[in-house]
Structure formats: structure tokens, C-alpha cells
Specification:
This protein has 48 residues and is mainly alpha-helical. It has one helix and no strands.
């Protein structure tokens, strides 16, 4: 049997896609936190 059989390819792709989704979610979370920080900064700047 070769290494590139269907089951191994599917397992690899599933693992890869899971990792990609995880990094994408982390990036989205970072952007949301940054938006919150910028919003708070701007509010405090306007109060002064």
C-alpha cells in the first residue's frame, strides 16, 4: 500500500483545515480586541 491513499489524504486535509480555521479564528479575535482597545482609547481621548 502506498502512503497516498484516500484515508491518509483525508486525515491530513482535515488536520490542515482544522489548523487553518484555528488561526483564522485567532486572527479575527485579535482584530476584535484591537477594535475595542481603539474605541476605548478614542473615548478617553474625547473626554479629556
Amino acid at each position: 500500500m502506498g502512503r497516498n491513499n484516500e484515508r491518509n489524504i483525508k486525515k491530513h486535509n482535515d488536520k490542515l483545515h482544522k489548523a487553518q480555521a484555528k488561526t483564522k479564528q485567532a486572527e479575527i479575535a485579535r482584530k476584535e480586541k484591537l477594535k475595542e482597545i481603539v474605541k476605548k482609547f478614542n473615548e478617553s481621548k474625547n473626554e479629556e
